C-alpha cells in the first residue's frame, strides 16, 4: 500500500467473505466500497456465491481524482481526514499537525489509478447486468441522492418479488 499498490487479492477476499458471513450482514445486507477491484476478486466472490444486487461505478475524470487524493490530509491526533481545498481543518492548530498519508502522493495516486483502470473493465464485465454509472464529479449531495434513488428502486423491486 505504501508503494501505491493494492493489498493481495486473497487477503482482501478472505476478510470480505468472513465479514459477509456474519449474522448482522445476513439480516441487514451489505455495501462494499472499492471492492472487488480485480477480476480475480470478482471471480472469488462468484465462486463463493456472493453477488451484489447492484454495482455502482462513480465515473470521475483522472484530474479530479488526483486532486482529491493529493489534497487529503490526516490528523494524527483524531484520525479525521481533511482536504486542503474541499474540507479544510477548523483551526490553524489542527492544520499545523496534519500529515499527508504515504499513499496520497501524486506519483502513488497515478500508480493506483493505472492499476484501477487495468482491472475496472474486467470487474464491470462481471457485473454488466447490474452496473449503474454515476457522475462522480458532481457534488456529494447529488451523488448521494442518485445512489439513494438506485437503492430505493432496488428495495421496491425486492418488495414486489416477495409479495
What is the H-and-E element order?
HHHEHEEHHEH
Which fold name corresponds to the CATH topology? Rossmann fold
Work out the helicity level: 40-55%
Shape by Cα distribution: globular
Strand content: 5-15%
Uncertain segments = none
Please identify the structural class as seen in this structure. mainly alpha
- The number of helical runs is 7
Q: Report the end-to-end length measured between terminal Cα atoms.
A: 47 Å
The neighbouring-strand order within the major sheet is 1-4
Number of strands: 4
Q: Which sheet architecture does the biggest sheet show?
A: 2 strands, parallel
Taking Cα atoms only, what radius of gyration do you get, to the nearest Å? 18 Å
CATH homology superfamily: P-loop containing nucleotide triphosphate hydrolases
- Average pLDDT confidence is 91
CATH class: Alpha Beta
Q: What's the CATH architecture name? A: 3-Layer(aba) Sandwich
Q: Domain count, please report it.
A: 1
